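retry 2 of 3: previous attempt timed out while embedding 4'-deoxy-4'-aminopyridoxal-5'-phosphate. Reduced batch size to 1 and resubmitted. Inputs unchanged:
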Amino acid sequence: MTEALSPAPVRIRPEIAALPPYRQGKQAGADAFKLSSNENPFDPLPSVVEALQSATAVNRYPDASASRLRARLAARFGVSADAVHVAAGSVSILQQLALAAAGPGDELMYAWRSFEAYPGLAAVAGATAIAVPLAADGTHDLDAMAAAVTDRTRLILVCSPNNPTGPIVTQADFDAFLARVPGDCLVVLDEAYAEFVTDPAAVDGARVLAAGHQNVVVLRTFSKAYGLAGLRIGYGVGHPRILDAARTTGIPLSVTAAAEQAALASLDAEDELIARVAVITERRDRLAAGLHAQGWNVPDAQGNFVWLPTGELTVDVAPRFEDAGLIVRPFAGDGVRISVGEEESIATVLEVAASALSLLP
Ligand code: PMP
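retry 2 succeeded.
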């Protein structure tokens, strides 16, 4: 469109002007399944709805530090409340930490392909992005990442399970990696999908922190397993002085009282949430097994999504899902990420995937 091509009427930092603006995945029509944003397909829990209805003091600013929620999360992790930071989605904390740790001349490293927001973080912070290719099986190549560390590396992002490919980083590999990273380099362990992990070998952020790694911040979110994506609330756990820096670069008062109330209600409803997660992981494993049986080389799926490695054929494969009423997330030249959603969507995903096999060489 000409609008996108014409220059801005004011001077924009060139590295920002070069970035594509965030565009949300397609919204689903009434008869389509939205499997493009790794959301939770279940309706909010009744206790969450109730908590939202009772959050009435909207004429007042919220508690800026979300102190009640921080206290609850701190108790779970066995840390002090100032070792927990709550923000409007874990993506906010990613940006706060990037701004705090990696400026111009510094390097910000991540595996690629991984969460789409990572490259933009480096650009916004003015740092240099170092993208280290994933191994062929969709796992982090932590050896290559450790080898790529320089004295300018200030922030390393490790995503487990990796969005969009699905595999975890093992505890053993993460420990070995940390041993090779200088202690003054911040390592963020992005565990947005931690609650869906069923592989016991997976890294566990709580364990990493308990082992005393002071340069690690663990990120979790209420958007996925807890089903609160629309309320925007996530958290980080780590050294209080690192989180103070995130609090400094963050916009104050972004977490609404309603979001905090709903997160507290979700923590109270832990049993129901664990049961829902079990339903999703069962669907995930069934879907992944079905795709494997068809001959797809699907990487180990440990989040609430599966990855179809369609490579150059992605642009041909993706419309087939849409035609069948499934909104999925294609990454051109690479693959298609399909969230694990409603039970009724599973059979259609498998049917479309089977038909798409004929397109492959
Ligand atoms: N990290 C990863 C790996 C993600 O996939 C996402 C969401 N897609 C986020 C962080 C951000 O989640 P939120 O801001 O909703 O907490």
